[in-house]
Amino acid sequence: MSAPVIVVPLGGIGEIAEGARIGELIAAAATGGGEEIGDRDVVVVSQKAVSKAEGRVRDLAAVAPSPRARELAAALDKDPRLVELILGETRRVVRAERGVLIVETASGLVCANAGIDASNVPDAGRVALLPADPDASARRIRSELRAATGTAPGVVVADSFGRPWRVGQVDVAIGSAGILALDDWRGRRDRGGRELAATAIAIADEVAAAADLVRDKASGTPAALVRGLGRHVTAEDGPGAAALLRAEADDLFR
Amino acid sequence: MSAPVIVVPLGGIGEIAEGARIGELIAAAATGGGEEIGDRDVVVVSQKAVSKAEGRVRDLAAVAPSPRARELAAALDKDPRLVELILGETRRVVRAERGVLIVETASGLVCANAGIDASNVPDAGRVALLPADPDASARRIRSELRAATGTAPGVVVADSFGRPWRVGQVDVAIGSAGILALDDWRGRRDRGGRELAATAIAIADEVAAAADLVRDKASGTPAALVRGLGRHVTAEDGPGAAALLRAEADDLFR
Fold it and tell me: Whole-prediction pTM value?
């Protein structure tokens, strides 16, 4: 029987300014909450916090929509300036109908509105884009955590995504460093020696989902500490959450 | 800041026989592990355990495949007897190509092979179907837990599902009772008074994912106890995980 997994919210971080070193803020929040971050822990950070620190916030008033953005916005009943920002982050439009714009971002994520939204962004009229390279964000936060604490926990950058076929959003890992994003069971056997049907578990996504359970989206809890997953934490930063992006050719659902 | 969430594996339950009262077995496993199940806890049970208790195990040798099953099996390079069982659980075939058969089950779940597989089923040549009505399974387990412990925790029946666009499987809630499966934030506001983009969180799916982190698929840990989510536990059994099934008409991805 494996050990318990404990998810601790890390609050009291306050509004995050552009240029903030998220790793340092999280280390301070952990200390303030009486927690010590260890090498076998995983730190989960909300995308919104990372985007703010990276200056990925845009003022809609400063956006000049292209004719294509205007056309799409009219068809979808969206703000053309928002659509312009979405298209700027987009590698490929997956769906554009019934008010919904689902795209594949430049970093390979498939999500509504390229992950752009206004919630928890201070100042009306401003929206946050996703980090340009969320795995690089996770690596940088890990390195800041190492500098601040002397330990190198796994890091997951999480965002809420909708899903086909199911109602509601769940948090998934858009970036990660130092955690085995995918636990591959192919070739392993069950208790009876039969090959397992669950061939690969998206650990980083499950960690993101678990962390979301302690976050209150209205209260500003931008991070959580997850304990008990040391077996999935790696010394190397590794390939990150990019390992969870399904190649278009392999995906029956596109 | 909300409280920590703690996920405790409940092992030592052993092989589950047809007719077993899962709620009683879980109550005994909790006691054996020094845990006391409370009204504000959530118990997560693996689909496989529930299917075995409900006698939803089939012997492939006893299945006579129909012509349609034979044809589909040949096209997909699958066992025609397995395909016959899948079609028997199917309301609608969603995809049948490149060796993958994705269907909508009679209970409304969209998943590969109607959720049928052989892993962790004792006796070669036998496979487990999903519970016929996973929300009813969750209600029954809750009632068994109430009888055994005098408390009524939330109950989630979880299974590993693949996802479009992302690699790997995550556990989702195929059934639930006494837990708010969907936490609806529509109309609520962020710290700055702006409407939240995350409109509804699939809590039961996130709980299922969190519980999977303590389960070792090869070791027989069919259940987990999740603490710290009392705010989502309800006295009534409620609508169950059926609340997480997206109506076909509302789903841009079908």
Answer: 0.95
